[in-house]
Amino acid sequence: MAKKSIRAADVAKRAGVSQPTVSRVFGVGTKVSKKLELKVKTAAAELGYRPNTLARTLATGCSKTIGLIVSFLENPFYPEALEKLSLVLNESGYHILIFMAANQAEEIDTIVEDLLDNQVDGIIFASVGISNTLTDRLVKENIPLVLFNRGQDDPRLSSVTSANFEGGRTVAQFLLAGGHQRIAHISGWQGSSTGRDRQAGFIKGLKDAGQELIGCIDSRFRRSLAAEATRRLFLGEIIPDAIFVGNDHMAFAVMETIRTEFGLRIPEDVSVVGYDDVSMSEWPSFNLTTIRQPANRMVEETVKMLLSMIDGDFLTVQKLEIDASLQVRGSARIPEEWPNEEF
Amino acid sequence: MAKKSIRAADVAKRAGVSQPTVSRVFGVGTKVSKKLELKVKTAAAELGYRPNTLARTLATGCSKTIGLIVSFLENPFYPEALEKLSLVLNESGYHILIFMAANQAEEIDTIVEDLLDNQVDGIIFASVGISNTLTDRLVKENIPLVLFNRGQDDPRLSSVTSANFEGGRTVAQFLLAGGHQRIAHISGWQGSSTGRDRQAGFIKGLKDAGQELIGCIDSRFRRSLAAEATRRLFLGEIIPDAIFVGNDHMAFAVMETIRTEFGLRIPEDVSVVGYDDVSMSEWPSFNLTTIRQPANRMVEETVKMLLSMIDGDFLTVQKLEIDASLQVRGSARIPEEWPNEEF
DNA sequence: TTAGGTTTTGAATGCGCATTCATAAAATGC
DNA sequence: GCATTTTATGAATGCGCATTCAAAACCTAA
Q1: For residue A164, which of A215, A123, A212, A127 has the smallest C-alpha distance?
Q2: Considering only residues 60-89 of protein chain A, which place a Cβ less than 7 A from any atom of strand C?
Q3: Interface test with A, best of B6, B53, B257, B329 (most A CBs within 10 A)
Q4: Nearest residue to nucleotide C10 when comparing alpha carbons to its C1'?
Q5: Minimum Cα–Cα distance from B90: chain A residue
Q6: A343 confidence band (pLDDT: 50, 70, 90)
Q7: B53 vs A contacts (CB less than 8 Å)
Q8: Average pLDDT, rounded, for chain B
């Protein structure tokens, strides 16, 4: 059907050399005399030759593609990260085989099988967890793997997250400094390290000052659940004067619910703080005070880590936590004495 | 380094058959006696054998992966579409090699080369254009290709869009029926068919009623430009009482600028209508009246079209326009007599 | 029972490239 | 100028699977 593609052998014949020579010209780290190289290159150009990546992969065992499993794409943090990830990986000559996943273990397993069948050189899990048995397999098969924005206890797993615990604590200090007395938390999924750590840090921060949460609801990073949680909080006995929400995506829903369903003002009546600092946070409609999770750096570190694992440096296995600082905007009362470092 | 992988030949030896027999068991449309099939399958299971997709691709010339080039990921329409695309393609047994692109011809060319080197079976361009020379190449090389949410005149190109012209016209009729007198348009990129068609339809709709735009600014689907355009419009001599914005993504910026910078109310002072109906449109903060572009159907049709082209049915080449209806919400004055079909 | 026909199966080959190994060419030393 | 080391090249082989083709096994009918 399609016109037969030109192979290295065709170029070789035209250039009057052997096929391996052509292969060497287009390969990396292989040497050919200037003279032949020129002949080969012109012949290749005349024929419009391009090496077949697949054949190369089959021969070398290295595909220059990495598998990416991502979920929660409705949270703008992930499209943003995805875009950067693509950029950085492409710069390093890697391709991305992408899969969307709900967060079910069996589904992940299937996807990973699929990735392995396709000979990916490494895998990035963006905001998805991995089962123990799957970890066993991947480690045994020596497949480099990094968890992005999600940590797991297993010491064999590398991950890049922000300093979620610290971030949560910072928020607590900020809200306390603002004199809030009735603080609640609408948390991210407690089945995820990010959700747990942010919450734990937050609670710790309150506790250190002798305060306790007046309410804490797991809304699993979902807008609808966050809105529902907000309703429960504001229909309760004690209504909060501050809410820390597990990520920005949910925080927007919380803010809207507070405003439209309860007619309260932000931050006059209620302070809201989020986590992520997605670009939407600075939209005037939200102007959300939030913990800035630097997607750029997280992506860079993720790729760096993965690539060095691919290069065989398994000492790279580590759990990296990127600093996460508070981005003060207008959705939460600003304490008088708060150090105004940001801007 | 990694444990040597088990090949079909290993399974064959263990099952006491030949390698081709194993190949036939795992291939499609190939027959093997029940007896041998069982032996092979148990042997394969015992060894944990999985066929190497790459080798298969090399042998068959069909990779079961499609290349996806996408830009404007900051517009939530595309993450939404991407997610569905992934779902539908995976269901059909296809994988996605994804590339982000700014919209520059040369960059696209490079990406496409890359895709071809990787032997993709087909390509989807999501919201990116394609040059004539590239079209020539792809057509000559017989690479199936579908443009998603972007049309081009070239008769050799397939595309799936919504009925942008009609959509634009509908908005015009809606705003006219609402009695608006000073209507402006902040358009999508006029270098894209979507941007042009929506604008053309809108203008036509106005013209048919004897009205004209009081202002029309190309904001190239970008938030910042849309905000800037809004400022220009509202600082002008005649202040609009209605604005049709080329997509929701920009419309949000327009609404915010109108509210926060000019202190005007929507829809009392100004009506705003968008295009796409991304999920954010129904958030209370925006409650945006907009043209609903059914991502689900568009994705399904795109995949259907692409797959039948891959199956060799090039009669499938066509330009498909999906119906786009108005989703009436609260961001624009609702005419008394407007047929309330939606919900 | 045997000729003719229908399936099944295996040996051989190719997909396009990289790599080992042996040989030829060039460069170096004295 | 010759022996020795270094470098450049080509023939052969393998990556893992699918497919052609011919041989073998199985059926069917008379």
Answers
A1: A127
A2: 60
A3: B53
A4: B18
A5: A99
A6: very low
A7: 117-119
A8: 92
Q: Which of residues 100-139 of B touch A (CB under 8 A)?
A: 100, 113-114, 116-119
Mean pLDDT of the B138-156 span: 91
Q: Chain B contact for A286, CB < 8 A?
A: yes
User: The tokens of B336 are what?
Assistant: 């008394």
What does the pLDDT read at residue B2?
43
Q: Which two tokens stand for residue B138?
A: 């792809």
Preceding peptide of A267 cis, ω within 30°:
yes
Out of B1, B52, B283, closest to residue A142 by CB: B1
CB A249 within 8 A of CB A75: yes
- Angle at alpha carbon of residue B59, lines to B57 and B65, rounded to 5°: 15
| pLDDT tens track for A191-229 | 999 999 999 999 999 999 999 999 999 999 999 999 999
How is the beta sheet containing B325-327 ordered, strand by strand? B215-218, B183-187, B242-245, B271-276, B289-292, B325-327
Q: Is the pLDDT of residue A235 over 60?
A: yes
Q: List, as ranges, residues 138-167 from A with C-beta within 8 Å of B.
A: 140-143
Look up residue A134 and give its amino acid: L
Domains annotated on chain B, with CATH: 8-51 (1.10.260.40), 65-162+295-323 (3.40.50.2300), 164-293 (3.40.50.2300)
Residues 22-61 of A with CB under 7 A from strand D: 24, 31-33, 35-36, 55, 58-59, 61
Distance B50 CA to D24 C1' (A): 29
- For residue A284, the Cα-to-chain-centroid distance in whole angstroms is 26
pLDDT band at A258 (very low <50, low <70, confident <90, very high): very high
Separation between Cα atoms, residue A204 and residue A209, nearest integer Å: 9
B96, B114, B141 member nearest A98 (Cβ)? B96
Q: Is residue B263 predicted with pLDDT exceeding 70?
A: yes
Q: B256 vs A96: CB contact, 8 Å cut-off? A: no
Instruction: Annotate A113-149 with DSSP letters as a single string.
Output: HHHHHTT-SEEEEES----HHHHHHHHHTT--EEEES
Asked if B21 and B36 touch (Cβ cutoff 8 Å), the reply is yes
Q: What single string gives the DSSP state of each residue in A38-97?
A: HHHHHHHHHHT----HHHHHHHHS--SEEEEEE--TTSTHHHHHHHHHHHHHHHTT-EEE
Confidence of residue B340 (pLDDT cuts 50, 70, 90): low
Q: SS3 for chain B, per residue?
A: CCCCCCCHHHHHHHHCCCHHHHHHHHCCCCCCCHHHHHHHHHHHHHHCCCCCHHHHHHHHCCCCEEEEEECCCCCCHHHHHHHHHHHHHHHCCCEEEEEECCCCHHHHHHHHHHHHHCCCCEEEEECCCCCHHHHHHHHHCCCCEEEECCCCCCCCCEEEEECHHHHHHHHHHHHHHCCCCCEEEEECCCCCHHHHHHHHHHHHHHHHCCCCCCEEEECCCCHHHHHHHHHHHHCCCCCCCEEEECCHHHHHHHHHHHHHHHCCCCCCCCEEEEEECCHHHHCCCCCCEEEECCHHHHHHHHHHHHHHHHCCCHHHCCEEEECCEEECCCCCCCCCCCCCCCC
The answer to whether A5 CB is within 7 Å of strand C is yes
